[in-house]
Amino acid sequence: MHLAQMLVEAKEWDEAQRMLDRLREQWEHSPFRDPCGMKEADYLQARILLGRGDSKQAANLMGSILAAKDSCDNNPFYDETRDKAKSLMSMVR
Q1: Is-contact 32 62, C-beta < 8 A?
Q2: Which residue in 15, 38, 42, 87 has the fewest CB atoms around it within 10 Å?
Q3: Is the CB of residue 9 less than 8 Å from the CB of residue 44?
Q4: Alpha-carbon distance 1 to 23, whole Å?
Q5: Is the dihedral of CA 38, 11, 51, 79 positive or negative?
Q6: What does the pLDDT look like over 9-18, one tens digit per residue?
Q7: Mean pLDDT value of segment 26-34
Q8: What's the predicted TM-score (pTM) here?
C-alpha cells in the first residue's frame, strides 16, 4: 500500500496502477480482507484516474467511497480515507 501511495505521489500512474492491481489481487486471497479497508485502494485508484485526466470516473469512485459511510463508519481507517476522498472531491468539482 505504501509503495502504491508513493507512486501516486510521484505521479508514476502506470507503475501505481500495476502496484494497485497487484495489491487488490493479494487482498482477494487474504484472510484479513476488509471491504472498508479496500476503500483506501479505491481512493488511490481515483487519484490515478485524476492524474490520467479521467475526472468523471474518479468522481464516481470517490462517490462510492463516501457512500460506504453507513457500512464503514466505525472503521477508523475508513474515516481517514473518507476525509481524503471528501477533500479530493471538492477539488474535482
Answers
A1: no
A2: 87
A3: no
A4: 7
A5: positive
A6: 999 999 999 9
A7: 86
A8: 0.90
